[in-house]
Amino acid sequence: MAPKSKQKAKSGKGAKPGTNGHKRTEKSIVRDRHILYEASVQSPGEDVRFFTRLFKRRRKRPLRRLREDFCGTAVLACEFVKAHPENRAWGVDFHQPTLDWGIEHHVSKLGADAERLELLCADVMDADTPLVDAVGALNFSYWIFKERETMLRYFRRARAALVDDGVFFLDVFGGQDAMASQEEDRKISGQRGPDGQKIPTFKYTWHQAKFNVVNHDMTCHIHFKLGDGTKLRKAFSYHWRVWTLPELQDLLIEAGFTSTEVHMEGWDDDNDEADGIFRRRSFMENQLGWVGYLVALV
């Protein structure tokens, strides 16, 4: 099963994106890989609501300052500053062209809210930002760190960026199919892009090309097939280590966090799909595939 990162799919959060009912024409086909990625993988509004809700529950105060590591197009950081007039966000990513895309398609739409957002083209290991209430590292991007000492160093850097009662939010996937070479296709229903443009229905493919059982190295790709038959092969490629929850939780404690929590979706037996509700779990049976939040508290 493909990692869904709470994406807009039937088995994840934001389960029923609206359809536009427009005719599919050559002119309406969207070929921008970032637009297709956000439409098929990300649900920033749901992530912000989860962060805000859990932070308030654990810290008894509102979440107001967020740092988004590996922010890419910074859609999460933008969503956070829009959520409340007192919210401030910092986005960190080392790829300037992707940040520039986010500035054009997301930051430019914020108006005065953009004054409360700062984007840094920097390595997350070296980025210098003000102390924040929460750090978020989503879409499994932190799995680029394959060595234990490197991951520990990153977790310590995240800890150092937080205030004394801060919270670190990560996402994680696993399950029996997470350690196998496979492809999984999903139909992404028509919707609207960040500029209001219509995105006709298209096909998203998560391709786990290689998995090494000895060291958990994984090579995976995202492919798209558009309504006119155009194929965008390897629109995105990743070279990760598949980390397990016990490994990550041990590293977080070693990095200076006092406790960790795992939040996973329940299962709707009637509809035979995930219910989209993330609950704290101390026990959960393995599945073919699962996606969850890993939360570390200072």
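The record above closes out task 2.4. Task 2.5 opens with a second protein, given below.
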Amino acid sequence: MSIEGIQAAKEKPDGRDRRIALGIAIMAVAIALPFLDSLFRLNLGTKLIPIGIFIILALGLNVVVGFAGLLDLGYAAFFAIGAYTVAFLTSPSSELLRALGAPPMDFWLAMVISTGVAAIFGVILGAPTLRLRGDYLAIVTLGFGEIVPLVIRNTPQWTRGVQGLNPIGTPSVPGVTFGVATEPWYFLVIAIVVVSVVLTSRLRDSRVGRAWAAIREDQVAAASMGVNPVSTKLFAFAMGASFSGFAGAVWSSYLQFIDPGQFDFSVSIFVLVMIILGGMGNIWGVIAGGLILGSFDRILSDTISDILKGIGNITGIDALRQADVNRARSLILGTALVVLMLLRPEGLFPSARRRMELHAAEESEEEAARQRSEPYEAQR
């Protein structure tokens, strides 16, 4: 390489510097949004908070799906466990506190407990099932995700069933009131997103993160190198569930009401699509996928519906007057996922490792097909 090339390589920022710069830029935009919202009266606060909570869920599920390569279709169950744990411990109407004769617990302590409880349930689910692989593991997690809302719905003496639990305790910070105002909740969610990004990035680069990558690629080879597949995958399940636990804690406290209908199967699929869209294994890709899907679900769908209704009022077309994009939400997401899998299966912003792995597999399949076809071409 020439001297000029060496100097250019030194001046070019590496991947880590680019990630740091990207993170700083995203944080600056996130901090500025509430001020822009109040200045221009966009009323985005109530929509951005759920988007942030679902990004936290996606970061946790990315540990399981993206890092360890385990398909979890029941992730909403841990979300529900975290939310109901905080409700049981902080709600004045909690039957558990009445039975124990204890006062409502501080939110922060309840949040820590909910994180631990969700992680414990992750271990309980994972211990007997992680010896399974592929479709069998997905079916088991799907069953767990359906069981938890059913248990909540059919134990009204503790959970109030479909009536739901309320009110729920809120965080306590000196000089800050968590109530109707959205700014305190927004900055709390942003802080948790930052902590989640730091934790997941440290996990990815740690020894256990490399073990997850090895198991994802070849479990037999990883086991031959001394990696315990069961305990390593179990730790991935526990970590993913813990993220869901504290996300559920903030979700229940913010809404001040929870019921089993908030944690159905569609939540697990929605979070999984965020990861697939952004790029499995890439933390910034997961955040981008969460922002894209969350913005469509919470902001763009209503805007598009209003535009179509306006066009219908002008043109007199009844179908456009009654247009509601939210009704076709599942259809639109499903179609987008199919198109993405056909055109860009690695996601919009895949990690370099994931992109290389996927294209290497495609190239090996093409090479094998070419070798199989060579004898027939020679005979012709």
